[in-house]
Design a protein that fits this description.
Helices cover 70% and strands 0% of the residues. By secondary structure, it is mostly helical. Helix 3 runs antiparallel to helix 4 and helix 4 runs antiparallel to helix 5.
Length: 117
């Protein structure tokens, strides 16, 4: 097995060179797009929640249906958690207060701590 330093020696470019080759706009926060992704994530969660509320009682809370619902909904809830986490890295806005406000709100809706991340 290759070690990390051996793999690093095989790469023909540095991290700085890779970053320079990428478009600069990829490194700029896009608040509108970020908020759009937040809205889409919560819309998906709401739709799956509504479907679960309608369909799970109809199938008498079948164990496999509940497990499938929990797996899907749990996976969807990773999205807002990750977005909140990225706010703590300053990925939402150039303004720290805006990133912290959105990140704290996102994590609060998930009953997760924001400041400890």
């Amino acid at each position: 097995p290759a070690t990390t330093s051996a793999v690093r020696d095989e790469v023909p470019f540095s991290l700085g060179e890779l970053r320079e080759a990428m478009p600069q706009e990829l490194f700029e926060p896009d608040e509108g797009r970020f908020l759009q992704v937040v809205a889409i994530d919560y819309l998906r969660i709401a739709v799956v929640g509504a479907l679960g509320a309608a369909l799970l009682p109809a199938c008498d809370y079948n164990l496999f249906a509940v497990a499938a619902y929990a797996l899907l909904q749990g996976t969807l809830f990773v999205g807002p958690w990750e977005l909140g986490h990225q706010c703590n890295h300053g990925s939402f806005s150039r303004h720290r207060w805006a990133s912290d406000l959105l990140g704290a709100w996102l994590h609060t809706t998930l009953l997760m701590p924001y400041w400890s991340w």
